[in-house]
Amino acid sequence: MGNTKNLTTNENISELEYLLYQIKEPIVCVKCSEEFTNGLSDAASLQNYSRLDVGFTKRGLQIFCRRHELNVCHLNFNNQKIDADFRCLEKKK
Ligand SMILES: [Zn+2]
Protein backbone atom coordinates (compact mmCIF):
# COMPACT_ATOMS: atom_id res chain seq x y z
CA MET A 1 0.00 0.00 0.00
CA GLY A 2 3.03 2.29 0.38
CA ASN A 3 3.46 5.00 -2.17
CA THR A 4 7.04 5.94 -2.89
CA LYS A 5 6.63 7.77 -6.18
CA ASN A 6 8.78 10.84 -6.53
CA LEU A 7 7.36 14.21 -5.68
CA THR A 8 6.68 16.42 -8.63
CA THR A 9 8.92 19.43 -8.95
CA ASN A 10 6.09 21.95 -8.77
CA GLU A 11 5.24 20.93 -5.21
CA ASN A 12 6.64 23.35 -2.70
CA ILE A 13 8.89 21.30 -0.46
CA SER A 14 8.14 23.39 2.62
CA GLU A 15 4.46 22.49 2.34
CA LEU A 16 5.46 18.86 2.77
CA GLU A 17 7.17 19.24 6.12
CA TYR A 18 4.29 17.36 7.67
CA LEU A 19 5.77 14.25 6.07
CA LEU A 20 8.78 14.53 8.39
CA TYR A 21 8.65 13.53 12.06
CA GLN A 22 5.94 15.71 13.61
CA ILE A 23 4.85 13.67 16.63
CA LYS A 24 4.27 15.91 19.64
CA GLU A 25 2.43 13.48 21.88
CA PRO A 26 3.52 9.88 21.35
CA ILE A 27 0.91 7.19 21.90
CA VAL A 28 2.43 4.56 24.18
CA CYS A 29 1.45 1.24 25.69
CA VAL A 30 0.75 1.84 29.39
CA LYS A 31 2.42 -1.44 30.38
CA CYS A 32 5.53 -0.81 28.25
CA SER A 33 5.71 2.68 29.72
CA GLU A 34 5.47 1.37 33.30
CA GLU A 35 8.10 -1.30 32.73
CA PHE A 36 10.49 1.14 31.08
CA THR A 37 9.96 3.80 33.76
CA ASN A 38 10.58 1.25 36.51
CA GLY A 39 13.87 0.23 34.91
CA LEU A 40 12.70 -3.26 33.98
CA SER A 41 14.22 -3.08 30.51
CA ASP A 42 17.67 -2.53 29.01
CA ALA A 43 16.23 -0.30 26.30
CA ALA A 44 17.75 3.13 25.80
CA SER A 45 14.34 4.70 25.28
CA LEU A 46 10.67 3.86 25.52
CA GLN A 47 10.54 4.03 21.73
CA ASN A 48 13.16 1.29 21.52
CA TYR A 49 11.31 -0.79 24.10
CA SER A 50 7.89 -0.47 22.48
CA ARG A 51 6.80 -3.01 19.92
CA LEU A 52 3.73 -1.49 18.34
CA ASP A 53 1.79 -2.68 15.33
CA VAL A 54 -0.25 -0.08 13.47
CA GLY A 55 -2.86 -0.89 10.90
CA PHE A 56 -6.26 -0.29 9.39
CA THR A 57 -9.26 -2.15 10.72
CA LYS A 58 -12.98 -2.23 9.93
CA ARG A 59 -13.44 0.44 12.59
CA GLY A 60 -10.53 2.66 11.65
CA LEU A 61 -6.92 2.41 12.74
CA GLN A 62 -5.53 0.35 15.58
CA ILE A 63 -2.31 0.60 17.54
CA PHE A 64 -1.57 -2.71 19.24
CA CYS A 65 1.23 -3.69 21.61
CA ARG A 66 2.89 -6.88 20.40
CA ARG A 67 4.87 -7.22 23.62
CA HIS A 68 1.79 -7.30 25.84
CA GLU A 69 -0.76 -8.30 23.20
CA LEU A 70 -2.94 -5.40 24.25
CA ASN A 71 -4.87 -2.69 22.49
CA VAL A 72 -3.13 0.65 22.88
CA CYS A 73 -5.56 2.77 20.88
CA HIS A 74 -8.26 2.11 18.33
CA LEU A 75 -9.39 5.13 16.34
CA ASN A 76 -12.93 5.16 15.01
CA PHE A 77 -13.26 6.81 11.61
CA ASN A 78 -17.07 6.68 11.86
CA ASN A 79 -17.20 5.53 8.25
CA GLN A 80 -15.64 8.80 7.11
CA LYS A 81 -13.04 8.73 4.40
CA ILE A 82 -9.80 9.93 5.96
CA ASP A 83 -7.12 11.77 4.02
CA ALA A 84 -3.98 9.67 4.33
CA ASP A 85 -0.61 10.48 2.80
CA PHE A 86 1.70 7.48 2.32
CA ARG A 87 4.48 9.37 0.57
CA CYS A 88 7.96 9.24 2.06
CA LEU A 89 10.04 12.36 2.41
CA GLU A 90 13.70 11.83 3.13
CA LYS A 91 16.06 14.57 4.26
CA LYS A 92 19.22 14.95 2.20
CA LYS A 93 22.26 13.83 4.16
ZN1 LIG B 1 3.23 -2.97 25.86
Structural write-up:
- This protein is an alpha+beta fold and 93 residues long.
- It has a domain at 29-76.
- The protein is built from 2 helices and 3 strands, in the order H-H-E-E-E.
- It has helices at residues 30-37, 46-49, and strands at 52-56, 60-65, 70-76.
- Strands 1-2-3 form a 3-stranded antiparallel sheet, with no helix packed on it.
- A hairpin with a 4-residue loop joins strand 2 (60-65) and strand 3 (70-76).
- The relative contact order is 0.21.
- The model has no long low-confidence stretch (mean pLDDT 89).
- Bound molecules: zinc ion.
Q: Which secondary structure elements does this structure contain, and how are they paired or packed?
A:
Blueprint: H1 30-37, H2 46-49, E1 52-56, E2 60-65, E3 70-76
Antiparallel strand pairs: 1-2, 2-3
Task: Tag the structure with descriptive keywords.
93 residues, 2 helices, alpha+beta, 19% strand, three-stranded antiparallel sheet
- The number of helical elements comes to 2
Distance between the termini: 27 Å
**Ligands and ions found:** zinc ion
Helical residue percent band: 10-25%
Strand order, main sheet: write it out. Answer: 1-2-3
Arithmetic mean of pLDDT: 89
Low-confidence stretches: none
| Radius of gyration based on Cα positions | 17 Å
Backbone structural class: alpha+beta
- Count of extended strands: 3
- How would you describe the shape? flat
Regarding quaternary structure, what we see is single chain
User: Main beta sheet, described?
Assistant: 3 strands, antiparallel
**SSE series:** HHEEE
Strand content: 15-25%
